[in-house]
Design brief:
The structure holds two protein chains of two kinds. By secondary structure, chain A is α/β, with parallel strands linked by helices. Chain A has 13 helices and 14 strands. In chain A, β8 (141-144) and β9 form a beta hairpin. In chain B, 26% of the residues lie in helices and 19% in strands. Chain B has an eight-stranded mixed beta sheet with strand order 2-1-5-10-11-12-13-14, sandwiched between helices. Chain B has a two-stranded antiparallel ribbon with strand order 3-4. The chains are: A alpha/beta, B alpha/beta.
């Protein structure tokens, strides 16, 4: 029997995420691993370096909860929903404490994960000429092009201690399949020392093997698979449930008041034992409003050798 | 073509942007006014225009008005979804984007954009969203269109507080020895008029004022001595048909038109 990597989420966080770790929680608006972030808050990890292209609400939550000392990212707002006020308070007023920031562009973050996954010493990028970003981030460096007369900016690899992502489905070994916006998850996973994949459901091996191109994360890259239905709420899972736009619109209004933000964390995260209780606190009515109608893909045909098919017919 | 009797400022800006997309092929844009402009251009002037989202989606056919570039409705039924590595590396840095749309809190005379901070980076007065993909889009798109919803000396200062996305002029002045692949900002549409940059190393020039706006008004609202075209035209007003398309077919729920 091949290795079974299924673990309850609290156990996976307890054994794989340590104080002081550099952690990446990726997923570009889609499949943000909120349930895992919430569990890190519950287990009160401290001193984390938090990496995410677009920090989103999960960063506001984890920073407010005191888990994060350093933020590595390329965006500081919540897409269409506006400001992330905990981050703004930290940076504008050092309230309640300053926050160290390493700031990049989106492409630079993508390339940093790619360089990390490929164990490269650095990687060139055609952005940043004339920009002030290299002035505030000494890790964006100008070097001579070893093959030509010119120069190029380079960025360093990013190798998290732990990367956590959310996926639609996986088998028990950890072969994880993702469809819809796939973002930077594959690069972030291979860049990391330890990897946790939370999934909407565990499926039989045959389901995974019926469409191997859909496996973005092969099992050999995974340390733990955790079954967490609705584990991306309030973000979304293509084909399963939609983004909770009401929640996203509510967040900046609430988080603008640090007291209310902390009360929300107390009630919805510290006050709930696990993700199931969190969902109960969000409420069935709100979750029900996020249902989507079905729109399946046409299956592709991978084919098989005629001989193998014939032998099976005789047996 | 009959002029619409009751168009809004938003509709005027969207229609102005749309007309400038008549001969463009691939456009990299966020959701909002740029998307409306591309959609309108597609229906009126340019059947071949193609919209690419930062989320990796190209050829979207959304069944409902999208709330953001990564909304599930832009994915369902779209022609392709690629990874971030393919999107920023091959599509954008590979030189496949004709026009990138960007917004900004501040813009200077050469089209350098600030989306990072007001004040000092170390302890800003206002922390803005940052680059996202903007610095990459500026460096690698054929040209950049900017829609900016304020036109005053604070938004159009002589010097921006922080250069997030640099103009070719700022790139040359920095001494880095690297030039962006494209032209930088070519068009800026504001609530007062249209500024254009024809010369890659030149300054923004006022080419159009919106109906009812004078050249002096625009100059006063700009934080440097704004160059003015020999012949400043009046921005073309939206037609009845353009406004009908925008309201009845493109943004039926008035998510962005307002």
């Amino acid at each position: 029997m091949a290795k079974d990597r299924v673990l309850p989420l609290p156990e996976a966080i307890a054994s794989l995420v340590r104080d002081g770790d550099t952690i990446a929680l990726e997923g570009f608006s889609h499949l943000i691993p909120f349930a895992a972030g919430h569990e890190i808050i519950r287990q009160q990890r401290r001193g984390l370096t938090f990496c995410r292209m677009t920090p989103d609400l999960i960063a506001d939550m984890m920073i407010a909860a005191g888990c994060v000392d350093r933020l590595v990212c390329s965006f500081f707002a919540s897409g269409s929903a506006g400001s992330l006020y905990e981050i703004r308070r930290r940076l504008e007023d050092h309230d309640p404490a300053p926050l160290a920031v390493e700031e990049y562009s989106h492409h630079a973050m993508v390339l940093r994960y790619h360089a990390g996954a490929s164990r490269l010493p650095f990687i060139p990028i055609r952005s940043f000429a004339g920009s002030d970003l290299p002035k505030v981030n000494p890790d964006i460096r100008l070097v001579d092009d070893p093959y030509g007369d010119g120069t190029t900016y380079v960025v360093p690899p990013l190798n998290p201690d732990v990367t956590i992502i959310h996926a639609q489905r996986a088998d028990r070994r950890g072969n994880a399949q993702i469809w819809g916006i796939t973002g930077v998850q594959q690069e972030a996973v291979y860049a990391a020392e330890r990897v946790i994949v939370t999934v909407e459901e565990i499926v039989d091996d045959e389901v995974i093997r019926s469409d191997p191109n859909r496996t973005l994360i092969p099992a050999h890259a995974v340390d733990a698979v955790c079954v967490v239905p609705r584990g991306a709420h309030p973000s979304y899972v293509q084909g399963s449930y939609d983004r909770d736009n009401a929640f996203y619109r509510m967040w900046p209004k609430m988080a603008k008041d640090p007291q209310r933000l902390r009360e929300w964390l107390e009630e919805h995260i510290h006050g709930t034992a696990d993700h199931e209780e969190y969902l109960a606190a969000i409420g069935e009515e709100q979750l029900d409003s996020l249902r989507v109608a079905s729109k399946p893909s046409q299956p592709v045909d991978y084919g098989r050798r005629l001989l193998a098919a014939a032998n099976e017919g005789e047996a | 073509m009959t002029t619409s009797p009751d168009y809004s400022q938003t509709e005027l800006i969207v229609c102005a942007a749309s007309k400038m997309l008549a001969d463009k092929r691939t456009v990299f844009a966020g959701i909002g006014l740029p998307t409306l402009a591309v959609d309108l251009a597609h229906r009126t002037l340019n059947r071949d225009i193609e919209l690419i989202y930062e989320s990796g989606v190209a050829g979207a056919h959304p069944e409902a008005m999208a709330e953001g570039i990564a909304d599930s409705v832009v994915v369902s039924g779209s022609e392709s979804v690629v990874s971030m590595q393919a999107l920023f590396g091959y599509v954008l840095q590979g030189g496949n984007v004709d026009v990138g749309f960007l917004g900004a809190a501040q813009i200077d005379r050469h089209g350098s954009l600030n989306t990072t901070v007001i004040g000092e980076w170390e302890k800003p007065t206002v922390r803005l969203p940052g680059s996202g993909g903007a610095a990459d889009i500026m460096a690698n798109s054929g040209e950049i269109f900017v829609i900016i919803r304020r036109h005053d000396p604070a938004s159009f200062p002589a010097e921006v507080d922080f250069i997030t996305s640099a103009s070719p002029v700022a790139a040359a002045q920095s001494g880095d020895g690297i030039q962006p692949q494209g032209h930088g900002v070519s068009v800026v549409i504001t609530p007062l008029g249209v500024l254009q940059r024809a010369d890659r190393f030149g300054e923004l020039v006022l080419t159009h004022t919106h109906p009812g706006v004078t050249v002096d008004q625009v100059k006063e609202a700009t934080g440097w001595d704004l160059q003015v075209a020999d012949e400043v035209r009046s921005t073309m007003e939206p037609t009845v048909e353009e406004v009908r398309l925008l309201r009845d077919e493109i943004d039926t729920v008035r998510l962005y038109l307002r």
